[in-house]
Every structure is written in C-alpha cells, then in structure tokens.
Amino acid sequence: MQQDAGDRGAGQKQKVTLREWWQDARPTKTVVFWSWVGVIVLTLIVGFAWGGWVTGGTAQKMAEKMADDAVLKRLTPICVLQFSHDPNRVEKLKALKEAGTYSGGDYVEKQGWATMPGEAKPDSNVASECGRQLLASK
User: Fold this and answer.
1) Whole-angstrom Cα distance, residue 121 to residue 34?
2) Are 111 and 133 spatial neighbours (Cβ–Cβ below 8 Å)?
3) How many Cβ atoms are within 10 Å of 33's Cβ, its own excluded?
4) Residue 58 CA: distances (Å) to CA of 54, 55, 65
5) Phi/psi of residue 127, nearest 5 degrees
6) Which of 17, 47, 80, 115 could form a disulfide bond with 51, CB atoms 3.0-4.6 angstroms apart?
7) Residue 103 pLDDT
8) Residue whose C-alpha is closest to residue 127's, from 80, 93, 85, 60
9) pLDDT in tens for each of the 138 residues of the chain?
C-alpha cells in the first residue's frame, strides 16, 4: 500500500499555466498566415483612421490648399495697400460697404486693387479676402 500513496494525485489533471500552454502550442501555417493578414488590416485601419496617414492624392490636395492659402495671405496686404493709395478711397469704401460682403470681391476686382503688379487680371480670391479685410478694418 505504500506504493499507492504517491499515486493519489495522478488521476487528477493539474491546471495548465499560460507559459506551459504557450510552449506546447503549435499553430499551423494557415493560422499564422491569417493572423498576419488580420494584423496588417488592423494596422491599416488604425493608421488611416486615427494615425493621421493619408494617401498621396490627399497629401497633394492638402499641399495645394496650403500653398494657395499662403499666396492669398501674402497678396491680400498688397491689395489693401493699393486701396490705401487710391485718391478716392473714402468714397470707394462707402460704395464697398453698400456692395456688402457678398459683392465686395467683385467691387474690389473692378477697382483694380486685386490686380497684382505684372499681372493682367485680378485674382478673385485675393479680391474677396481684400474686400473682407477692408470692410472689417474701416
């Protein structure tokens, strides 16, 4: 009976630890492949949704918009300066106020203030922004 004393726990299964389970795990090639596919898809979703990633086309559009905004920011003060050199600026400012914000850009274009030196025709975006600044400052 002495021999049976050591075998009492032999019939019961011991709890497998995570480390033992991991060491014994042998995933198939299919499982490994689809796991990698899932990780790649998840990385793409997280990267484009929250990571700030953009496509080349979107980056190009963003760069063009930033360039247009920078040019507008630099040309608008020139338009305002050309307005300030106009001898009839007081009367023309009253007419600009009557034209309002919506038609102000057209009025500024007609006066020639948005026509930059060396250019043949005025820039409508510069004219609109110039009109907004003139209405806001005076």
Assistant:
1) 60
2) no
3) 11
4) 6, 5, 11
5) -65, -45
6) 47
7) 85
8) 80
9) 455 555 555 556 788 899 988 888 888 999 999 999 999 999 999 999 999 999 999 999 999 999 999 999 999 999 999 999 999 989 999 999 988 878 888 999 999 999 998 889 998 999 999 999 998 885
Q: Is 79 in contact with 71 (CB distance < 8 Å)?
A: no
Tokens linked to 16: 């497998």
User: What CA dihedral angle connects 3, 7, 23 and 21, to 10 degrees?
Assistant: 180
Residue 94 amino acid letter = K
Query: Two tokens at 132?
Result: 């907004």
Q: 3-state DSSP call for residue 7?
A: coil
* Amino acid sitting at position 43: T
CA dist 19 → 1, 31, 45 (Å): 36, 20, 31
Main-chain phi, psi angles of 39, to 5 degrees: -65, -40
Q: How far apart are CA 55 and CA 42, in angstroms?
A: 17
- Going from the C-alpha of 20 to that of each of 12, 15, 33, 62, the distances in angstroms are 17, 10, 24, 52
Q: How far apart are CA 47 and CA 29, in angstroms?
A: 27
The helix, strand and coil proportions of the chain, stated in percent and rounded to the nearest 5, come to 75, 0, 25
